[in-house]
Amino acid sequence: xxxxxxIDSSHLGAGRRITVWSPPKxxxxxxxxxxxxxxxxGQNLFDPARAFAGRTWRVGEIxxxxxxxxxxxxxxxxxxDHGDVQRSxxxxxVEDDRNPGARDPLGREYADFVTREVMPLIARxxxxxxxxxxxxxxxxxxxxxxxxxxxxxxxxxFGRLLIESPSLYVxxxxxxxxxxxxxxxxxxxxxxxxxxxxxxxxxxEETVRNVHKLARILRDRRLGPRRLLVVVEEGATHSEDAxxxxxxxxxxxxxxxxxx
Length: 260
What we know:
Shape: globular
Helix content: 25-40%
Radius of gyration: 17 Å
CATH architecture: 3-Layer(aba) Sandwich
Strand order of the largest sheet: 1-2-4-3-5-6-7-8
Order of helices and strands: EEEHEHHEHEHEHEH
Number of helices: 7
Number of strands: 8
Number of domains: 1
């Protein structure tokens, strides 16, 4: 089931649409609390009419099927719309020299927006299970950067991370440096990437290489195979189709019956 909410953010100085997918009984007043997964780029998750090029992650369809088959526990999934022309600034903690639109980044403000405004909003409308073990965050590309950065600067908030095709090159690998210094990590982290993200073979190799660098950092922090899943999909592009194709595996790893 879907519901849309609107929020005026003091941290971003803008309004934002929130789309929520939930099990039918997950409404305020329900006695059963549900884990929550927050995802960036909400326009591209559920509705083809709002998605980039009409392609989505098919989140509702995939989550419904996995819950129905008992592959994952019932959960609430929250899609947070990006800021259109402000997307780059909001998602990045540092400037991206390859993107002129990524000046004066608002990554820290975005992290506060999610944790101090969106999360309380969802808790007011839905029966949310509290604690890091029941709270996940994720995204793709710049959206993955925003999720990873937020988890790093707000340790102990998100116990599950879904990181797809992350732009880890930004700021001369700023996120990798922050990751090396981080003392606390989520209990489960999924990393996904394709080998054909762009039409540039050098960038493709860099993207995959950086994901492996992040994976090594996490393994050095003793995240073994029960806590870390890395998927490198041969020939996969930087697209909603690729992220949708890998989503079932990501959700099963993060929210499967044995992940509690």
